[in-house]
Amino acid sequence: MTGIRRAALIASALALTLVLPALAQETPSDFARLEATQNAANAKPGPRTVPGRAIPVPPTASAELQAIIAAPYRVPNWNADPKSPAEWKELIGRLAAIGATNQKGVREKLGVTLETSTIAGVTVYTLTPKDIPPANLNRLLFHVHGGGYVYNPGEAGTGEATAMAAYGGFKVISIDYRMPPDFPYPAAMDDVMAVWKEVVKMHDPRSMAIFGSSTGGGMTLAMILRARQEGLPLPAAIAPGTPWSDLTETGDTYKTNEWVDNVLVSWHGYLGRAAALYANGHDLKDPQLSPIYGDFSGFPPTILTSGTRDLFLSLTVLTHRKLRRAGVEASLQVFEGASHAQYYIDPFTPESKEAFGEIASFFDKHLGK
Amino acid sequence: MTGIRRAALIASALALTLVLPALAQETPSDFARLEATQNAANAKPGPRTVPGRAIPVPPTASAELQAIIAAPYRVPNWNADPKSPAEWKELIGRLAAIGATNQKGVREKLGVTLETSTIAGVTVYTLTPKDIPPANLNRLLFHVHGGGYVYNPGEAGTGEATAMAAYGGFKVISIDYRMPPDFPYPAAMDDVMAVWKEVVKMHDPRSMAIFGSSTGGGMTLAMILRARQEGLPLPAAIAPGTPWSDLTETGDTYKTNEWVDNVLVSWHGYLGRAAALYANGHDLKDPQLSPIYGDFSGFPPTILTSGTRDLFLSLTVLTHRKLRRAGVEASLQVFEGASHAQYYIDPFTPESKEAFGEIASFFDKHLGK
After folding, report:
1. For chain A, where are the E strands, in sequence order?
2. How far is CA A276 from the centre of its chain?
3. Which of B17, B58, B72 sits opposite A44 (nearest CB)?
4. Which chain B residues are Cβ-neighbours of A18 within 8 angstroms?
5. DSSP annotation string for B47-67
6. Could you give the count of Cα atoms lying within 13 Å of B141 in the half-sphere of its Cβ?
7. Around B298, how many Cα atoms within 13 Å sit in the side-chain half-sphere?
8. Which of B189, B173, B207, B172 is nearest to B290 (CA)?
9. Over 90: is that where the pLDDT of A111 sits?
10. Quick check: A26 pLDDT over 90?
């Protein structure tokens, strides 16, 4: 970095520190000054110049979600930079232990039980709610957890499955697929496909749906591509939430929501590193890694979920549009103020209940009984 | 403004000028520095601190839309600040003359004809496409134009109606309702309701839909509330695009997309002034001015459209969620990189054709023949 650029960055940091309280309580004449600066900076076609700002917590989200929106950046998750497989495993294990403990509490509060079994050699958790309505007795949901292909092994990955079981009244199986650093692509996809292949022998796939958010959303889409390719039956519906449907740095909200999303924060955090670790040299644009490059025609009815502050809002809407252009019934829900996956990270917000309620009613419409 | 705040703003403007080229070609060590600054600035719960940035034009939009995304801020529209009714009228008239000329060219390109008539004393334009498919012969669409209750009188307001006629193959009537400064609330609503009351005597409302974007979207929602209240028939479907459903400064994307949206740019431009001019002392939260405060139960099936850079993305998703919570069939489409109403401002982008195609197929599903 040159001396000038270093000086500029320091000046910027100082200026931000000084100016933000002023902007927060801006007067008309402050605004006029900013307006003039901004009009001048954006007077020619090209990239958009945007000033540093303090963005308030929106009162339009529920009080519960407001607390989550107000939270600091998710350190160390978002910017993890382990230097070796051992360091990755230490971090992953430490976070997963916390996650597993949290999930135990969540299950107790929501009246959901967890059983562990093995299908096709893969660990599978079955989440069962206290009450299953008659319409759902023969239905089974297949959950693929998120976590950037590195986080959430074991019970830490079952949160979304628990919420879906509780709020939708479904029996859910959640797949503990293998992950890097020990098992890069295609281990994760091989595991979920092996389980799918077994499960559809026992359950009518027309009474099943596949769902999962973030990495789990990308894998859900990749599963449909691969099932179609391998001549396996498809589920009656899918719910890829805020799907990591493209492992390359693609999508406008990677820039517009950079530093705004407090979960993923920036592509230049762990995301890019996790993508490389998972791909392990494979082409990132292979539709099995980045399903948005695949052919979506013939996909089952799909419901997608995101938030206005989500770094993956673009991935979600690009996936939605591509599904629609392929003639697929595809529904989109976007939650006010929510960063990446914040519609389910805390299952106790009204927005989480609403998001899972929408998915449940979409499944109810499309799944056989 | 205190001397310290003035100095801070000047320092900020200087720093932005210096730092943006550096950010645009950032190196890993630049990022590490920014990461540390940002983590520190967001280490405690509260508002989100976001740095100044240059946001590139997203290659994920079509080439045609990219040119529109790259455009400078829409001056003088976004920050107009007329000091008198005469100044308002001069600006409105000047922009409307340009708009009317543009629309003539658009109609010629799209093979749509315009006829002018009067219904219930209100000027109404009828837009007729070259070909009307048999299924649409007895269908009629009712268009309410946008423009912040001040812009787009006369033929300038017919662009969206023309695109819908051309891409959907529908006959469309577009209402030239009265506006401020001469005619504040409730003149605009009185006019569209007077026309609606007459039109439903001649056409079966079950074969009709109401649509319009921005102010036209807000008015579409307010029309349903008022029609229900007055015991008038409702249309079979509505398409409020990026609706100005709340005239107060409400919604997270007013902040997250401030200075990002190149159409509306900021609430503190003309928007707030137009809201005050229209309301003319009425409560901005009256559901006839801000329909989001109304009861949406029993609304017709609704399709909403917005973009990821839209200052009204929050208004759109808040309206969508409220409709869904009221049990209304409501569909949401969001376009990558699009600022406010950019899915229709230029009818020749692939995104515009796609947006109107979606609305047309939604109408086809819900309108009687």
Report:
1. 48-50, 53-55, 112-119, 122-129, 140-144, 171-175, 208-213, 237-241, 302-307, 330-335
2. 18
3. B72
4. 4, 7-8, 11-12
5. SEEE--EEEPPPTTS-HHHHH
6. 36
7. 11
8. B189
9. yes
10. no
Instruction: Return the structure tokens found at B62.
Output: 């079509």
In angstroms, what separates the C-alpha of A141 from chain B's closest C-alpha?
23
Cβ neighbours of A108 (radius 10 Å): 10
Q: Which residues of B touch A251 (CB under 8 A)?
A: 58, 60, 336
Contact A336 B79 (CB under 8 A): no
A212 phi/psi in degrees, rounded to 5: 165, 155
Query: Above pLDDT 90, what percent of chain A?
Result: 91
Of A51, A54, A358, the CB nearest to B16: A51
pLDDT of A113 strictly over 80: yes
* Best CA proximity match to A170, nearest among A143, A195, A136: A136
The answer to whether the CB of A339 falls within 8 A of the CB of A260 is yes
Q: Do A47 and B61 touch (CB under 8 A)?
A: no
pTM comes to 0.93
- At A65, which helix (H) or strand (E)? helix A63-69
Residue B326 predicted with pLDDT over 60: yes
Q: Which residues contact B192 (CB under 8 A, 6 or more apart)?
A: B122, B144, B175, B177, B219, B223
Tens digit of each residue's pLDDT (9 = 90 or more) over B152-165? 999 999 999 999 99
Q: How far apart are CA B369 and CA B363, in angstroms?
A: 11
Residue A111 CA to residue A130 CA, distance in Å, equals 6
- Enter the tokens of residue A84: 């070796």
Contacts of residue A17 in chain B, CB cutoff 8 Å? 41
Asked if the Cβ–Cβ distance from A50 to B55 is below 8 Å, we say yes
Residues near A261 by Cβ (< 8 Å), separated by ≥ 6? Answer: A309, A310, A311, A339, A340
